[in-house]
Amino acid sequence: MRSGAKVAVAGGVFVLMAGGACYGLYNVVGAGGESGATDSEVASAQVKTGPPSAAEIAGTSKEFLKAWASGDAAAAALLTNNEAGAEPLLAGYTEDAHVTAAVITPGPAVGATVPYTVKATVSYEGRKKTLSYASELTVVRGLTSGKALVDWQPTVIHPQLTEGATLRTGQSSTPEIEAVDRNDKVLDPKTYPSLAPVLATLRERYGAKSGGTAGIETWIQPAGETAPKTTLLTLAKGKPGKLRTTIEAGAQAAAEQAVKQFGEASVVAVQPSTGAISAVANNPVTDFNAAMQGKQAPGSTLKIVTAAMLLEKGLAAADRPIECPKEVLYEGNTFHNLKYFSLPDTDTFTTSFARSCNTAFIKRIDEVHDDSALGKEARDVFGIGLDWKTGIFSTDGSIPDEVGGEAAAQYIGQGTVQMNALNIASITATARNGTFRQPVIVPQSLDGRQLAVASRSLPRHVTDQLNAMMRATATWGTGKDAMASVDGDKGAKTGSAEVDGQGVSNSWFTGFSNDLAAAAVVQSGGHGGDAAGPVVAAVLRAGS
User: Which pLDDT belongs to residue 15?
Assistant: First the structure.
């Protein structure tokens, strides 16, 4: 048994609760300690195969929990199918997390899975506090030994532990923060749940600059450098430092409510005049901030970039007629409009944009004479792919160089185009004023980080045409219903992104109202105006 591993609830030891009985310190059974099998099973020279029996599941789980509860990490690790991976985490439970007492209460097995609750006492520098949680283990057949073993996963120790992460207790490396919005309203993660992972990252990056003092905590230290730590318990509070963000509380509250209407949705709002991120929300809320880290095809919302390119090259004009047939063939690939609609040849580019005509855009690809032109427009004007430094981890959009049918698909936001709600909101913000301003969630002055700068702005006549075309979409085009409740100078673009193997397309929508732009995506939401549209409208109403 490791030195210091005998920890106390009573009598100087861990305690395991099972079936109402209270067990003290156990001797570990079997030198190999691999299974909880019966004597007759152990005596058998034949290696067993097949799923473990109910008796083996009960026996192995009991012996593992006994060994863990007694603080014998080596013995507990031998009862798993990954001794090398299990022992450091089991030993760290006492040595790194400073758990000095614990009661583990197993529940009835469900198949090969055994649930249990843990009530652990964490002690550090004279301070004690209880950490309670529930987890589970699964018993499997050892591949070589044939014995019943605990299938080792870090979640056996704690349900939030991931591969490579560790459980620790000590003085925090960074003080807590009191994050506030641009108007000094406190941003509480309980009120704004989507901000919980955002605020955790902000604390990691800027806590030391906030003027606070560190406390004593139990936390999960992640394996990756970019991931924030997860605080599980605070033994002694430090003094939080104040950190001002660019979030606007009203827009954030609206965003939180709007995404809850759907099983999987994200939205971001950006101020075109400054690049300040006003709101960011996801449902469900996880450590992965899909609104700013996601990568997927944005559908016809990308036509904002395509339209800008065509307008700049003189291949289209807002008030000039353009063909919109029901389908078009390009290098062996057939593209069609929704429900194969077509428009009269006398209709303008504005009408094709407002009605989201795919073929009007794809028919112009031969006249561009450069398959990489769309990617250049996105990078040089809209700042896509310039390594944004938002203040937290975010993923840049991308339009890879393609040829033939893949290049054509990019014109309508399909194929290999990858974007998230932040990228599309920024594209709309750039179209609004003609100049890219890199989105930020904390001021640049906080750390002097280098913000991305696009190489040029849109010409004024192109910006004016883009705004006029987006206004048309919002007032009588495909965005009319969704934007009906939005006041002010408003514009929009709808999008539906088809995904291989997915029966219903993803719903995309982006829009602006006065000095606020927003974009949303609803997974399997269908038409852009039906699902993502109301999400964007709710944020614009609250924040513009």
Answer: 58
Output the CA–CA distances (angstroms, integers) from residue 89 to 68, 270, 435, in the order listed: 11, 43, 51
CA 102-228-247 angle, to 5 degrees, is 125
Question: What are the b/e assignments for 174-200, b being 16+ CB within 10 Å?
Answer: bbbbbbbbbeebebeeeebbbbbbbbb
> What secondary structure does DSSP assign to 199-267, as a single string?
HHHHHHHHGGGTT-B--EEEEEE-SSSSSPPEEEEEEE--BPEEEE-S--HHHHHHHHHHHTTSSSEEE
230-264: pLDDT as tens digits: 899 999 988 899 999 999 999 999 999 999 999 99
Examine the pLDDT at 140 and tell me if it is beyond 70. yes
Instruction: State how far Cα 304 lies from the chain centre.
Output: 25
Strand 177-180 relative to strand 241-244: parallel, antiparallel, unpaired?
Answer: parallel
Confidence band, pLDDT 50/70/90 cuts, at residue 9? very low
Q: What is the DSSP string of 346-414?
A: TSBHHHHHHTT-HHHHHTTHHHH--TTHHHHHHHHTT-TTS----SS-----B-----HHHHHHHTTT-
* Cα gap 490→512, rounded to integer Å: 5
Q: Is the pLDDT of residue 276 over 50?
A: yes
pLDDT value at 278 more than 50: yes
Give the Cα separation of 105 and 499 in Å (integer). 45
Other Cβ atoms less than 10 A from the Cβ of 387: the count is 11
Terminal CA-CA length for the chain: 64
Question: What confidence tens digit (pLDDT) does each residue in 180-222 have?
Answer: 999 999 999 999 999 999 999 999 899 988 989 889 999 999 9
User: How far, in Å, CA of 97 to CA of 424, rounded?
Assistant: 42
